[in-house]
Amino acid sequence: MKTYNIEVQKFKGMSNGNGLINAQIDALVLPLNPAEGKIPTTWLSMSEDNARVLQQLLKAQLAEVDKRKARSQR
Asked: Could you tell me if 57 and 11 are in contact, meaning their C-beta atoms sit under 8 angstroms apart?
């Protein structure tokens, strides 16, 4: 499994369609060599400000998805 260290620099936008939410971002992506004995995993890092932006963008996209659902599915 390939592992990476992803540092989000900026969120540019977000959209949804076909059951996916897509984020347009600027990010620094570097390969990560896990230490021996540790489970290989990819890390996603962002500043608190970027995390707050992500939260607001996700809320907006999920609200848009919920608007399209029938009332019985809400």
From this structure: yes
Helix ranges, the chain (H): 48-68
The residues with which 15 forms a beta bridge, in sequence order, are 22
Q: Which tens digits make up the pLDDT trace of 10-36?
A: 999 999 888 899 999 999 999 998 778
d(CA 20, CA 55): 16
Take residue 59 and report the two structure tokens written for it. Answer: 């809320």
Distance CA 18, CA 23 (A): 14
| Cα three-residue angle 49-34-50, rounded to 5 degrees | 5
